[in-house]
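Before the break, one more example. Copy the sequence into your notebook; we will annotate it together after we see the structure.
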Amino acid sequence: MRPLIIAAALSVIGVAAPSAQTPTAAPAAPLGPPRAYQGYAQPDIGANYCRVVNAGQTTCTLPAMTAGRYLVKASGTSTALGVGAAQKLSIIVGNRNCGAAERKPTTQNPWTSGVKTIRLNCEILVLTDRPLAVSAVYGDAKANKAPAGPSLTLERLPWEGVLSANVAPTEQGE
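Here is what the structure looks like once it is written out:
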């Protein structure tokens, strides 16, 4: 009797029974911030937002009132000068290190000559009222950096509606 009363109550308030609901395809995630961030934009960050500081750093600046997801892609290129050549690349967003990539020589994989490029990607979600610097910082050892400096691009990504997702501790039963 109780399930019948619950079903009747749900039908009165306009909730269909689960078996009567048909799944619908989710609409494509839009580019640009959701309505909660009115006044903000998610602009394309092209070359006009970026500058090479020196052979070891390139910086792009997100304008004030930017909100959105971006894929940051960085790379650094050097020519080895002999045994022990190495590379390291970091992406810095504001004052946060998004990550680092490193190439160290090993006996199985030495880098003694030639040109090598190291790459690193970082996905960021930003909401800023002020301009925000995003930098590729590149260093090498026993190698010559390309004079053009590291490359740095930012690609707009669609909003997914998820602001954060983290692993939470979970007790496991025996």
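The helical segments are 2-12. The longest helix spans residues 2-12. Try to locate both features in your own notes.
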